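Continuing from the previous page of notes. For each protein in this section, the sequence appears first, followed by its structure tokens. Read the first protein now.
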Amino acid sequence: MLNHCFLCRNEDLKEMLESSKESLKLEAMKRIVGLIAKGKNASELFPAVVKNVASKNIELKKLVYVYLVRYAEEQQDLALLSISTFQRALKDPNQLIRASALRVLSSIRVPIIVPIMMLSIKEASTDLSPYVRKTAAHAIQKLYSLDPDQKEHLIEVIEKLLKDKSTLVAGSVVMAFEEVCPDRIDLIHKNYRKLCNLLVDVEEWGQVVIIHMLTRYARTQFVSPHSSSFIALIICLCQVVMAVSQLYWHLAPKHELSIITKSLVRLLRSHREVQYIVLQNIATMSIQRKGMFEPFMKSFYVRSTDATHIKTLKLEILTNLANEANISTILREFQTYVKSQDKAFAAATIQAIGRCATNISEVTDTCLNGLVLLLSNRDETVVAESVVVIKKLLQTQPSQHSDIIKHMAKLFDNITVSMARASILWLMGEYCEHVPKIAPDVLRKMAKTFTSEEDIVKLQTVNLAAKLYLTNSKQTKLLTQYILNLGKYDQSYDIRDRTRFIRQLIVPNEKSGALSKYARRILMAPKPAPVLQSAFKDRDRFQLGTLSHSLNSQANGYLELSDWPAVAPDQSVRIVEVVEPAGAPVFGKSKPGKSDEKFYSDSEEEEEEEEEGSSSEDSSSSSSEANLRFVLTSFCVHVESESESESEENSDDSNKSSSSQSDSEKKKKTLKNKKLQQQKPDSKDRYWSHAV
């Protein structure tokens, strides 16, 4: 019934589209776009819709192109029939129509129209509308994926668009650069400072792309900054905060990293999707720089409303931040988490307690005793995880904790989780000499239930039998032979192979040869204690904020971050000659004239001369630092300028309200403001000269 109604609706829409009245066609297109917005499939209407692509009604044409952008890739044959119409639309007076036509053309994934697409992209890249040029940058990526052989021609277009001064185009062309030719760093040299200046006004997604590109650029073109100070970060957008944070992490000196801490912690109030990415990056940072986030430790306390993956990441960060000073506070917090109804989180908390016990020797015994108490917990998951962690901790000092091993052996019958049972059996076998009376009894119990156990438990049972045969053969010889016979005919080939190997190793015969002489050294060799490490320990090999870092696996298209060069490359590649218009003042090169002398004091002139002298002496050593500062402070320039203008306005308002101020004082204030405005270009130009 519903399908019949849907077909009837499509027929009605087709009739409206084929009507001679523009109003009916427009109404039909509005309904169709509405269906698409609701997720309905309107591809059957493609032939009726595409007929109206040449309509003279602008509003109708816009809706038609919205539809075509959605379905051109699915209905390529029908779209090809109207390709001449799309080409004519590229000359349409309306910029939205021109951009939509290019978008539809680039959505037709047919190799035969590659030359047409290439020509259209070249024409659109010189369009007067920045919106059309932005669309051309997007089309570059689509054409490259369709025909990689066009790379050289596309690079020419990218080089042209990189010179574009529009903030609307900057992010899109950098994205095209990253997709098509990320290794062509030479294309960035001349546009480096321009991109830094445009960065503040680019939309947030464009900012993220540009910042990632500038991070790679800085790591290849500048030496590592050892001593430089950067302006504080003032950013509010989530994506941009993450992008700038990774830029600071990879580029800034170590003592400047605390600048990004508050911004990252503030993002933890965002949606859980944002929290997840931010916490992943903080988890990586907190391993190397505990001091960055230690003052904000309470921000990582788990809330009852947090999702499991958020809780686990916060737990990871708290464990990374643990030290002798705050461990008591963290352990009290962990005691609450163990009681959580979220079993996966409770198990992760027990693992975190084990890590704290390993990393901080002062609390090892305290953590171990606490985990032993958890063995009496009613929750099977908690008990099982406690057994696994205790097993790892006991490997550090087994002789001092024989009582704990005995206690775990008594609980063996009540534990049903296979990993926990296997851990206890491993402990019995590894330290059987410390519990000579209990270990054979455990083996006797396992002989009864061997056939019904999981494979991991069976393997540890075979190992336990072999070790007891070597250390206490009088009491366990028959038990061992019985278990080896059971394993010989087990359904799992792993169990059968292990059984045959153990039999040849511990039971000497003519075929076993000399290997049986070393059975004790092989099976009873001392094992190194396991190192409990963070799951984020090795993630720093990936750039923060990338998909590869989030997945802990190199994703397609990931670009590795280069090491700092030992010697800075040629800095002159970023020098751009600016042709000043006739009559325009050249800032930073000419001294103030006589008419300006009354605006400057002698002390200020001396300071300027000293600054110019020192900059010429240290230009070679400070160029890399200045360039890095130029990247990192681009976000703050507009904020500073706004604050300056606000302060000037406030001062003017206060002057007007003050009745006691004389006319001469007001004139001095005005002259001072003019002086600031005149000084501004000079200081900016001096900064640019340092950044060369």
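Done with the first. The second protein uses the same format. Note its length before scrolling.
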Amino acid sequence: MASNEGFLTEEQREMLKIATQNAEILSSSPKSPTPKSPTSLVSENHIKVPAGGKAPTAGIAVRHVRRSHSGKSVRVKKDGGGGKGTWGKLLDTDGQSHIDQNDPNYDSGEEPYQLVGSTVCDPLDEYKKAVVSIIEEYFSTGDVELAASDLRELGSSEYHPYFVKRLVSIAMDRHDKEKEMASVLLSALYADVISSAQISQGFLILLDSADDLAVDILDAVDILALFIARAVVDDILPPVFLTRAKKTLLESSKGFQVIQTAEKSYLSAPHHAELVERRWGGSTHITVEEVKKKIAELLREYVESGDTPEACRCIRELGVSFFHHEVVKRALVLAMEIRTAEPLILKLLKEAAEEGLISTSQMVKGFARLAESLDDLALDIPAAKTLFQSLVPRAIAEGWLDASFLKSSGENGEVGDKDDEKVRRYKEEVVTIIHEYFLSDDIPELIRNLEDLGAPKFNPIFLKKLITLAMDRKNREKEMASVLLSALHFEIFSTEDIVNGFVMLLESAEDTALDILDASNELAYFLARAVIDDVLAPLNLEEIGSRLASNCSGSETVHMARSLIAARHAGERILRCWGGGTGWAVEDAKDKILKLLEEYESGGVVSEACQCIRDLGMPFFNHEVVKKALVMAMEKKNDRMLDLLQECFSEGLITINQMTKGFTRIKDGLDDLALDIPNAGEKFNFYVEYAKKKGWLLLSFASSADASLTPAAAS
């Protein structure tokens, strides 16, 4: 029974059986080498039995030994690779495998491949890198249109706030030229490429990172404050942005310091618009105020000449295609002011749109800006809303205004009382807010609280509650209520809100009188004061009266308010009716007006005189400037005062409403004036015609020929 394999244990026999089966399988393969004997497989599996017949102990490994064809022992290489005279690895071929790409049977799928590691890209990071190249190229070329086009092509509009941040932060660390260019580019991109909300968000991000910017840029606070002030002056940031931004910042942060610097050092400074626009050496092209003046001039000339091609050429030569919305807005306002000019204005806008001179987006933006300011415009042009509503469908029908404008402006702010629970809760909140205001006299805090409530549709309810509570208090609270009303109208209340609020008050006047004996008289003074403060226009009283029953107590109150306004020296009397507020300063204001006019008449500069008028801080009293300027022009026989009035009107410092009021006061006192200036009537007629020609007065304004009945009617 002896064999060269010796005696096998049961375990080794089992392994030999498995090896034999594997050999049979390998022998059937066409690519397999010459089949091996079971014994050789056993030897490859490290099974060795000593010649003495004793089997080795299970689990003890033996050395890797393979017999060559020559009978010599050859140490086996790792993984079974052969040495000299061995068969090599199990699946080795005689030659090296080579893939030939020129082989007709070549398959690219057989090529060896490697897994290449790749990092996942953040879209925001990619956007930030891309905009840096756009900004750098813009600073090199100054090409606004190219920068706008590149930003549009980049896409990812949801990241535009980061473009604002990147543009400003890069410019902050450059020269004044780049700072000015950055401001010009933001104005150009506003609304067309970057929305108003995105610009606001971009500046908020800048304010949040002001502490980091200050580490690298020593005067970062001042520079960023100037950028924000410039954005407000350029009408791409609303003034209320400053108030809202404060609420999101810590008082100890650099961002908070930026807001304070913008408010105190720039936006409240004398001539702040000119100061801010020229701080970096003037615009790279032309300042916003200069553009506005040029647009106003070319439109006036166009109305006089009717030369449409020339007007289009002038618009094109301005070279501010991103600001054409201002052309649209001013043209529409002019069409409302001068009714006979409407066909010409519409013809100009239509041709400018058809030529591609004014883009679709600029046309829509111009209409949208006018729609937003209709409440203020109604103070000077009572029929503004009606006229605007008639112009829009006509422009859409003729094809030069996109119909999308109607969708964007389709919301209305009608106040409803559908949800009694919401109204009740709102009333409770505002009563607390009003009581706090009467204690603190803090108008900005009250405005913040109102904005936090987030219910602008209930603004008329707030007005009604404010005046009702004030009427049951002392004169101090009444004066505070009127001052607050002026502030709210400037900040967050529309004229429609205030009209609706007074209508609600007057509708419930009889009920109010049960608790407040003198309610009708007090309400009349509140109405009259609102007109004197330019919160309401005189024609708004007619609108309010038309919405009330003819025989009710509210109608009598409106009639009483008209009588108060028509009386001599109505402004001074109404301002002082509650003994304080701005009323105490009326005499001082008159003296200051007289002195500034005398200084101007003796050789002063127009811009300085305008600034002095602005510094008075009494826009509701600018009719006194008009009156005294006209009287001085008559006395001195010097028409230089007309240049001052023209400048004030061009800058929007004196409105048509205030101009009309000033001329009316001269007209009412012509008889007395004629005692000192014999030709006063003749001079006044000349001034009226001049003012109508320049657009200061409506064409319907009656001259002194109709004035003889006015004093009698007033008395």
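What the second structure shows: The longest helix spans residues 420-440. Residues 123-278 form a domain with the Serine Threonine Protein Phosphatase 5, Tetratricopeptide repeat fold (CATH 1.25.40.180). We return to this in next week's lecture.
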